[in-house]
Amino acid sequence: MPEATGAPAPGIRWLPASGLIVSRAAGVYWEAVRVSSSDAQQALQAARPPQNWNGPVIANDYTNAWTFLLARGPKTRWDVPGSRILRHGTRVGIPPAAARCGPDTHWAFPPQGPHLPSLTELRRLLTSASDHPRRQS
């Protein structure tokens, strides 16, 4: 799995101020797209280079789901297999900036600044990964 580099950006108001996971509603600060952890990892590994993804991704190894946080924008049709846009108001557990590993909610890619990728960028990432065959373990 590619590793994100750098420390999370300070001053992002939706990040928890404490060391605890907080619940935030999708649609307030960002759109959220949930993807299986295996599909998310495949997509991020297929990116050229792997560090090309520049948006925050929350991993939860307990649920085997990763959540991509994206710029708010107009509603769009979402038809990427294995993923879904979370409805506005759906609660998302936001880990503290320092949470980088563990079996529960943590950052696979922490936020690096105020810019969030668009739904179009995530669609491109996920659909280009489906063009690459899966590796067999």
Outline the structure in words:
With 137 residues, the chain is α+β, with helices and mostly antiparallel strands. It is built from two helices and seven strands. The strands form two sheets. It has a five-stranded antiparallel β-sheet with strand order 5-2-4-3-7. It has a two-stranded antiparallel sheet with strand order 1-6. Helix 1 (37-46) crosses helix 2 (119-130). The radius of gyration is 14 Å and the shape is globular.
Q: What are its keywords?
A:
two-stranded antiparallel ribbon, alpha+beta, 137 residues, disordered N terminus, 23% strand
N-to-C order of helices and strands: EEHEEEEEH
Helix content: 10-25%
**Parts with pLDDT < 50 across at least 5 consecutive residues:** 1-7
Global structural class: alpha+beta
Query: Rough shape?
Result: globular
Q: Let me know the average pLDDT.
A: 84
Give the total of beta strands: 7
Strand order of the largest sheet: 5-2-4-3-7
Major sheet summary line:
5 strands, antiparallel
Report the sheet-strand fraction.
Answer: 15-25%
What oligomeric state best describes the polypeptide chains here? Answer: single chain
Q: Helical region count?
A: 2
- Report the span from N to C terminus: 13 Å
Radius of gyration: 14 Å
Per-chain topology:
Elements (H helix, E strand, L loop, with lengths): L21 E4 L5 E6 H10 L10 E4 L4 E6 L12 E3 L5 E4 L10 E5 L9 H12 L7
Antiparallel strand pairs: 1-6, 2-4, 2-5, 3-4, 3-7
Helix pairs in contact: 1-2
